[in-house]
Design goal:
The structure is a single chain. 80% of the residues lie in helices and 0% in strands. It has one domain (2-432). The chain has helices spanning 2-33, 45-48, 50-59, 64-75, 78-99, 102-113, 119-134, 137-155, 159-176, 181-190, 194-219, 237-247, 252-268, 274-287, 289-307, 310-321, 323-328, 330-349, 352-369, 374-391, 396-405, 409-414, 417-432. By secondary structure, it is an all-alpha fold. The protein starts with a helix and ends in a 5-residue tail after the last helix. Belongs to the NhaC Na(+)/H(+) (TC 2.A.35) antiporter family.
Length: 437
């Protein structure tokens, strides 16, 4: 009797999370059918999750005071608070470096070195570098998209191919960057260091990038020169600075704080003002408000799921689905389970960071059961979330580039070749290097 009661409690503990996903996805689909721009981003996720939190309180078999304590314990977990603080610093760095002209400098530095016959792969690499430096695919697309559109018109390159190339590079950097919110979420939920996840991730992403560059070289039409605007090398240095410090293994808080100061210092060499510096830091904080609140709310919700056995229940269900593969190799099965978990989450939510936060606790359970390292599970979470996000025609990336290039978002997502190659590469690594996890 107690077993059936426990199983029922575990199932009910998942109801709030399911409510959040259905509400968020349902609102997006409805607004999409009404022709609303960026339909899946009209209902803010921190608001969509509020009814789910109410349901979590109702189904939890405890007093209201105990339920409040449970929620606060989850929201205030060390990993959640650490993640939120990193979000704030990452947002501040991105805002300061962008305000000083760093993004334009990186883009034009890249364009000045691209041979005409290497246009598509060159733009892929520029997008990859900018996204890795900025930590955001949307920021990269917003900066490079209009430039790429102008290049497309000038050279006659298929707009869908050009847009897909920009998404591809943007998702490469979003997946790898140490200041990306997807990296922050993946490493904190899986309990690993950013530098370890970066190195593990690079083993999969770099071969996929090389294959993508080879494909784009083949797809680039007759060469046409593209002029780059003047730029200041000093403004490129802050991005290189934090990347070097992060790979060297320095504490992430020190890396980001140092990056903010360094970016401001490079700006002060020009006409950047101290008053603007203070305001840009706060703007960076404000830009992270949504993911900050959502992370805390998801943390509180996850604690209800954990104490009622929901995580164990989900892990067991995934392991049953991968049971046939597990007979051949348990670690392969659990890694594919993590991939499937975050793919489905992102398909429903259309936000790679949110999908990682949602799937993270279950992925951690699968990783622990299968003796998979935190760096590998974090890498897989981030990789497959970015694979799905870059392939979604209703994802923000495809919608923004579709509007910029005046083409269908479907054309953008189906031309994002890197995302498909990354999925193939990741699955190959899972199967071929099955004991090195």
């Amino acid at each position: 009797m107690s077993t059936s009661v426990n199983k029922l409690a575990a199932k009910l503990s998942l109801l709030p999370l399911l409510t959040f996903v259905v509400l968020f996805l349902g609102a997006g689909l409805y607004l999409q059918s009404q022709g609303v721009d960026y339909a899946f981003y009209q209902l803010p996720a921190p608001v969509a999750i509020l009814p789910a939190i109410v349901i979590a309180f109702l189904v939890n078999k405890a007093s209201i005071n105990q339920s409040v304590e449970t929620f606060i314990k989850g929201a205030g977990h060390n990993n959640i608070i650490t993640m939120c603080l990193i979000y704030l610093l990452a947002g501040a760095f991105s805002a300061v470096a962008g305000a000083t002209g760093g993004v334009d400098a990186v883009v034009n530095a890249g364009l000045s070195f691209i041979p005409a016959s290497f246009l598509l792969p060159g733009l892929f690499l520029i997008s990859a570098v900018v996204s890795t430096a900025m930590g955001t695919s949307m920021g990269t697309i917003g900066a490079i998209g209009p430039i790429a559109y102008a290049v497309s018109l000038k050279t006659g390159i298929d707009p869908a191919l050009m847009a897909g190339t920009i998404v591809s590079g943007a998702m490469f950097g979003d997946n790898l960057s140490i200041i990306s919110d997807t990296t922050i979420a993946a490493t904190r939920t899986q309990g690993c260091e950013m530098k370890d996840k970066f190195r593990e991730n690079l083993k999969i992403a770099l071969p996929a990038a090389v294959l993508t560059v080879c494909l784009l070289v083949f797809l680039t039409p007759e060469p046409q020169a593209v002029a780059a605007k003047p730029f200041d090398w000093l403004l490129v240095l802050p991005y290189l600075f934090i990347l070097v410090l992060a790979v060297a293994g320095m504490n992430v808080f020190v890396v980001l704080f140092s990056g903010i100061v360094f970016a401001a210092a490079m700006g002060f060499v020009g006409d950047y003002q101290a008053g603007s510096f203070v305001k840009d830091i706060y703007k960076g904080f404000s830009d992270m408000q949504e993911i900050f609140l959502l992370s805390m709310f998801i943390g509180g919700l996850s604690e209800f799921i954990r104490i009622n056995g929901g995580l164990d229940y989900l892990a067991q269900k995934i392991q049953k689905l991968t049971a046939i593969i597990a007979k051949w190799h348990r670690k392969v099965a659990d890694q594919l389970g993590i991939a499937a978990l975050v793919l489905v989450s992102n398909l429903c939510i259309a936000n790679n960071t949110v999908s990682i936060i949602v799937a993270g606790p279950v992925a951690k359970k699968l990783a622990d059961d299968g003796k998979i390292s935190g760096k590998r599970s974090a890498s897989l979470l981030d990789i497959f979330a970015c694979v799905m996000q870059g392939s979604l025609p209703y994802g923000a990336q495809a919608l923004l580039l579709g509007a910029t290039f005046k083409i269908s978002p479907w054309d953008v997502s189906t031309s994002s070749f890197y995302c498909f190659i990354l999925a193939f590469t990741a699955i190959s690594v899972i199967c071929l290097r099955r004991n090195k996890v």
